[in-house]
Amino acid sequence: MKLADRVARLGTETAFAVSAEAAAYAAAGNKVYPFHIGDMNLATPANVQEAAIEAMRGGKTGYCPNGGIPALRAALAAEVAATHGMKLGPENVAIQPGGKPVIEKFLLALVNPGDEVLYPNPGFPIYESQIEFQGAKAVPYGFVPGEENFLLDFDAIEGAITPKTRAIIFNNLHNPTGAVSPRSEIEALAELAIKHDLYVLSDEAYWDVRYGGEPLSIAALPGMAERTVILYTFSKKFAMTGWRLGGAIGPADVIAVIATLNVNEESCTNHFVQWAGVEALTGDQSGAAEILGILQKRRDVAADALNAIPGVSCYSPTATFYLFPDVTEAMERVGAADYDDFRLGSLHNTGCSFCTRLHFGRALPGETRKYVRIAYSGIDADQIEEGLGKLKAWVESA
Prior knowledge:
Mean pLDDT: 96
Distance between the termini: 51 Å
Oligomer: single chain
Radius of gyration: 21 Å
Number of domains: 2
Number of helices: 13
Low-confidence stretches: none
Structural class: alpha/beta
Order of helices and strands: HEHHEHEHEEEHEHEEEHHHEHHEEEH
Largest sheet: 7 strands, mixed
Shape: globular
CATH class of the largest domain: Alpha Beta
CATH superfamily of the largest domain: Type I PLP-dependent aspartate aminotransferase-like (Major domain)
């Protein structure tokens, strides 16, 4: 059977391949410390779970409006309006079965084949996959080390813009680095978008996984609401990764198109799960606060443990549940020939499983430093300390 040509352009989320390797190693009787995937080993708050159960018992198990139930559209509009300082209504919200569909539907609604789309690299691999799958050109931009965390490489961004550039994907509170853009950086990016008439996908999946500082969305800056779509997900704040619930928030005309795409692709997002989303946004917030506190403790333990390893240096970011340590010298110490050599050597010698920089995009020209991503959302603090202690001993013994 001859598949469609576009299938060859479809990528994947390679962290799942690392997860499969780790699972196979664990199934053979080995201890694994799961730093490889951004899933969570924390329970969804009890009130949110109960809301879904009550919705099922109440008959909310059939079709519902394609753009989302009115109660959830209104609740999400109110939440984002309050946290972002924006004026939003239900017409600005289309509920989605997770955050990923927002990437696809943003591109389908606003980008034509042959257009160019800027995206962060390293970054969430689905950006590149969807851009290329839909026949557009994926143009990467990178990051440079700053005093407190990584910063956008503005020289790369400005140099990559051409008359064919249609949109830019911006993931503040960034996966995989954990970087939080300062206001000056967000304002500069907004100026570029306005100057070149670019649409913006503001991926705010980790908006609520923040341990300090004041939040700022590019969508809230002057001239940006009419050209920006926000990606919102319930997965992180409420530990709802498997529930598959998210939303697209943006200009009403674009949201109407995205809602029509919902009809064509999945009809609607799961009905009773949406009622859980209403409770998550409007009900008791103590469960979400507890989740954030646990994640912050894990961050502190992981950052301290990584910085104690010879040849490793690591920022302690104020958001997300990822660390992105520089392991260049550590790789040299253990004689790792490449990323896979280091990653698999770690798994087999210490049980620590993690993704590398190359799981988040192709290496950019001139890249010489080596990085790995440490996800601490699915592993308890004592296990973080134990696992990274074994990684330290392995590197020291070399």
